[in-house]
Structures
1.
Amino acid sequence: MKTNLRNLTMLLLATIFIVAGCAPTVTTQPAEQPTAVAATEVPATEAPAAALPVEMWTYYGDTGPAAACVKTAAEDFNVAQSKYVLNIRNLAFTDFNQQVTTAIAAEATPDLMIVDNPDNARYAAAGALADLTDKVKTWGQADKFLPGPWNSTLWEGKNYGIPLGSNTVVLWINTDLAKAAGLDVNNPPKTWDEFETWAGKMTDKAKGVYGTALLAKKDETGTFLFLPWILQNGGDLQHLDSPESIAALAFWTKLVEEGYAPKSAVTDGFAEIYTQFTSGKAGMMISGTWNVNSIPKDAPDLKWMVAPLPYTKQAASSLGGENWAMFAASKQQDGAWEFLKFVTDPAYGTKLTDCMGYIPSRTDVLEQVAAKSANDPTMLVFLKQMESAAARGPLPNWSDASAIVQQAMQEALSGQKTPEQAMQDAAVAMKSVLGK
Amino acid sequence: MKSVQVESYLRFALGLIATAIYLIPLFWMVSTSLKPQTEIFQTPPSLIPTHPQIDSYRSALGLPTNRPELYITGALYFKNSLIIASFTTILTLLLAIPAAYGLSRFDFRGKTGYMLFLLVAQMLPSVLLVIPLFVLFKNLGLYNTHAGVILADTALALPLAIIILRTSFIQIPSVLEEAAWIDGGTRLQVLWYIILPLIRSGLVAVGAFSFLAAWGEFVFALSFLGKPELQPISIGIFQFIGMYKTQWDTMMAFSTLVAIPAVVAFLFLQRQFIGGMTSGSVK
Amino acid sequence: MTIQSVMNNLSKGRTFLFSDKLTPYFYILPSVLFLGVILGFPILFSVIISFQKYDLATLVSKQAQFIGLQNYFAVLNQPAFSIALSHSLKFTFFSIFFQFTIGLGLALLFSKAFPMSNIMRGLLLSGWQIPSVVTGTLFLFLFNLDYGLINFLLTSLHIITEPIGWIVQADTALSAVIIANIWLGIPFNVIMLSAGITGLPEDVYEAATMDGANGWQKLIYITIPLLKPTILAVLMLGFIYTLRVFDVIWIITKGGPGSATEVLPTFAYRLSFIHFNFGQSAAVAVITLLILFSGAVLYLRAITSEEVL
């Protein structure tokens, strides 16, 4: 009896020690990891002094091109100079706010982070970010950046970030499914009515195929996707209860009710609609420029095209993209700044943004892209859509406003409220948020 | 007797149905892990994968596949999980045994208060404990150490452990101890050599609870462990959830691999702490 | 601490020279210290900041302003709070009701050996061994309107004619997460109740059989009353654990659609990490604590009246 317990304990302890001893202690990750270990433990054999570590957090998770692309950028930086070494930690999008907030509380923040452009202002306003104004002045490149992304880095006239790149959402169409439904792929839908017709024709209930995938998830991505439709119809955030704004929600609700878009829209995120589109379960999807590099790899047989988002009154899409931001508590501000200058330099050019499927935020780098893509219809659509991409904010309490939009969208799409009721309630809630 | 046999078979049938229903999610996990991504979202769903693939398992194990974007360090995660869970279990038992013993044998001022505290201590979700704990651990120099996570996980498991062990101790009549004292043992000796073996099932139960709680815990692990080489399996799962894309099949393959040893271990262990089954007792 | 008692202690071989009064405190001291620091401190912290204006800027500057009960008023006035509260209570009640009855049924089922019963019971515990992220994702798949296995099985077996919306429909979403939570809670209930059942004395049952009692009567008049301490413990702990469930709900619905599955923990999380209002979030946590606290007091009263020790 008692020996059994003893035996169990011994076995457990033994297992720990054996596994602890045998399993490899350091992972085999691409270049930057061993460099970091070498740098912090043993002075590098080439450089006279040990390279100073600079740490950056992103929310790209570890799957997909975005994570790999920033890691490549870090490697390139580490190779290009020997004074600093950049380490990247790719966190999951869903936990990012929590991790950053916790780190701020415990004063354990990294040196750099990637921040979604509407959130830049909030962290700046809270005093968590380093004021880059002087560095930017010395650098002298501020005027090379596009106003949309650049504005998102400003707070009270000072600089608190550097744009990494922008993206926007466009309409992705499965051309095989479209042709099979008798639609003319040379004439993609330009108005809401045409979009509805296309969605209806491509829906095949028997085969479980939906005309279009829709993202109405209860987080920032939901607002990101839905907000342009309000703008396209002439509505806006300050007037969510105007007939134009309500009509946008009513249109989405109709798509779901008619069965042209899956009811799971309320829980679908980019990952889900991507899978729906690439597996042929959805004829169209509204998603971002970043898919351009993944689709050929994940679904090489899929024939697709992109088109600008359809609209009623004015073209509109969302301005996505991230900014690099430096933490005020960083001890390696110079090193971090070196990286920022490196990665946004025209000489480094489009390497990062191409890899990620983003649009560069600098006009001179953008010109490189435009020149390269004169014959690339996909890129041309992206660039055209960027012209009408609307920024979210800048508003320090953007996430509060966003939550209200998400709530209205979810309530209407899940049948809890009519679009009118949902938007009217949202407008009331929005007053206290925007009124601040 | 015949009616006993009939009853036995009836129980078997009921048990089979119950188990089959209960295992549906697990079945789905394994099934999904073997399906290509296109088949996962097929309508109507396929129970058995029509085009099974094991690329997901190769990917989860860190073997080369044509999915270059994943950085898996499966063995390392497993080792970290094992370290964290094992030490949590040991620490929990070390702290719980004397506490439960004290609560079961003595009456003292503050006893009710302490028991109330034990209950209250379990009431907050981990997510809300993270910030203050992080501040505390950072100041104690425990950030980026397994020790920090172990301490936090132990704190999560300890109240339940004390409560369970207390019930176990109560079931051992004190006359047994008193007889042993008369024979010349100290209270501590008697506790260790005689009483503990008697409550073996409670100890195994507490060990199992604590181990599993630490094994699956991810909020503290995510917050307190910045270095990838320290991270346990519960964090590793998040690797498959990207911002724009998720590797569903690999995620399920990874989870299956993680679940197998646990399920197998439990199949053997559960008899220990449920006290075995008394064949023929009429309950 | 008389000479007499010291002599008594020594003769019984006890190593402590102090009176019996202090001995218990030595036993509980390590755990008290440990929990006091690691859990007591965060609870205290939460209580303190619930009375302060605490947002992201405060987190950076570490200078908090005392604002009395304002956070509480703000929280209680939000319609979202009463929604979350009612959902929490519904969620907890139904989860526990089904977890407990199913758990008890299973524990009774397995109380007598039958072929493969050990393996089956072991498999029934597997719900615990899967990380909550995976469980959440699995149920996300299973509950899907189109390709979810649950709808498929229900329609194939002709239990329903139309697939159910589950998590995408406001009126069924809470039921869906309750089902997921029941699944998660069954191992705990089965283990605790099984352990309790094996501790029951056989002679009482034998006497009852001789008196002609049938199975059902034995269950109601013998098993359940004898199991009362275990049952109370399972219900109390279940109440505490269920009220604080966060992971599963967050992963499946994030509290949505709309607020259809918003419960107190998700509401508190939202206040903290989406609205960055830590003071209000702490107020919600304290309110949750008070609710649970009253439950705990009732429970302790119930069990201390039972035990003779």
2.
Amino acid sequence: MAGSPNVGKSTLFNVLTGKKLHVGNWPGKTIERYEGFINFEGNRIRVVDLPGTYSLGAVSDEEIVAREFIVKEKPDVVIVIVNMLEFQPSMYLALQVLELTGKVVIALNKADAALKRGIHIRASRLSRELGVPVVEISALKRMGLRELVKVAYDVARGKIRTSPRRVEYGAFEYYIRDLKRVLEDCKAIGEYPLRWLAIRLLEGDRELEELLKKRCSSVLEDVANIRRRVEEELGSSPETFVIGRRYEIISRLYRYCIALEEISAPSFTEKVDDVLLHPVYGPLISLVMLISTLVAVFSVNTGFPLNVVFEVLGWEDLASFVEDNSLTGLLGMAFDVAASIAYSSLLSLGAPRWFAELVSGGVISGVGGVLSFFPLILTVYIAFGFLEDSGLFARIAVVTDRLARRVGLSGKAVLPLILGFGCNVPSILGTRVLEEERERLLAMLIDPLIPCQARLFVILVVASAVTHNYLVQALFVFSVYTVSLLLLVAVSFLLRASVLKGYEPPDLLIELPPYHRPSFRVLSWYAWDHGMHFIKKAGVVILSLSIVMWFLVNHGPGGAAAPSGSFAYFLGLALVPLGSLAGLGDWRIMLAFEAGFVAKEGMISALMIASQSPNSLMAVSSVLSSIPQAMAFAIAAAIYTPCIPTLIAFYSESKSLKLTFFMVAYELLLAFAAAVLSYHFLELLF
Amino acid sequence: MICMPFPLSEAPENVPLRIVEIRARGRGQARRLLEIGLTPSAVVRVVSKAPGPIIVEVRGARFALSKGHAMRILVDVVRE
């Protein structure tokens, strides 16, 4: 299944394939490959979802993946989805596919919405013009789906013969013929259709040029010569000519096959956009949307900031109810219960103590740690998917573009980064939407500086331990965030001045699709799939590291010890001199930082174990006695190395161990410097 | 009267414009604009010129383009 972005491909894929399989990534790329199955008339049909692209050029990885699939894996039939509401741009991909393979079925999606808008299409005419079957469908309303599958199946098995109309390039054909002759001698590129190859090379295609360089490098010179001739003789670049010609055909198809009723009133989308894209209201509303998204996500997961609101209002019971019944609270409780049950039952079954402790403290708690951030990832993905699918993401990108440029990014990076306030894992994975590589790299490198909910949790506990005054607490939290964000801007500036010298944020080019109410089913499926996929990939690593951490905290050179006398304790002692530079010279504090490597919430439980306090507030107060200390601790906690899952996400996206180490190193240094500076600065003040 | 084509970034709102040329900055850039339908002789309309990216309507779809792109697209007013 192929289609440009915003044609409804994911909805169709989801609706057609009952069972969805995420079969890993496309080879050598970070793009996910989705496959599913349809059962039709006793046959099992495998459906591969190609990445959504506007064309099959070689500008982006998605385009390369899509066309390589069609050429190398030779699907029995390709369904190209065309958006009836935006016929021409989505038709472009269809034309491209038709130049690669004749076994195509065009699915005209959003037929229901088109009807409402007064857009009428002569599907049979279009089919005759293109030479392939055309089926009108509505994935959302599940119309025409059976016919689509039947027609596709018939094309696949040869019952319907297609004869795709060849795109004629007029005067340009002369040059295509010339290049074809040269290419015929190059035997090594056999798999690509000759004519298609010639056209693509003349248009300019980095991937194919790389291929030629390796196998028939002399051809490259001929390509360059012919391109020059086209510029001189036809007066414009080959790609302008070729793409222009394709759109001429699409225009003609549009005029010939589509009839429009007079639409008197501006559409819903236009009315909403008048507000959303307004120079003043736009940014305000985007801000409100982003904040509400974050608040919703936070509250579901951790109870914050809803619990603070309730506490301020004096509804203490409601506040603790929200906290305890938040997803993280519930999961945490469930695992605590499971751990104690395991511990006592193992002991009663006669298992040795160390084994019972390993299973309950190491394994079960470790699994609990892995799974406890699953709801975080899930809710963030749902929020992200909602904003993307509905069309709001594009509007946010437009409105925030100017601001983003000050930090060296384009508007598209804003939403993925903002997600970092929820959890850095989907945030880093979300930077995939950034096509330009260096922009993506920059975004990924500064992303961990955005304090996630786990870090917020730590900051909140410290704030409440330090003072009972809500205003001071709020100020405390606010200052930590401000410091982190200022550092983010500074780091971005430094990176662009050094490592990324010469980089400019890419120009924004983004489609503003008509507003669309996303299907919750599709959203939650994708969110679940992404979440599960990450857990599977990272779960084992996280679990093993948690067990290692548990071991280091509970065992020392003299056997079992907890926690003073453990390995972690000795490491903590060694770090004390460093910590005292920031007023944090206490092995228990260092232990907390060690625990924070796996998950930031672990910092608080580490403090509780180390200071042997029954609750988190007392644990914190016993090690942090002054505001400068507390602030230094909170700032360091907010900035220093991200948790293991984030590191894994970073590594899997950047595919570079070097970069991952760089990120870890710079964050450690930054956290240290910031803690030292803030401690001494505040000491002067107080 | 001879009129010179002008960049899209200077175009007025809500006036039908015909694309004359796309000035390429490198090979990839012009292609992306062409592929979404901003081809020579296509008719486009600037929907919104608020500070920041320009919103254009082309071939029934709407796109946001930052100034960099808009400066490279040369247009002319459509004369009836």
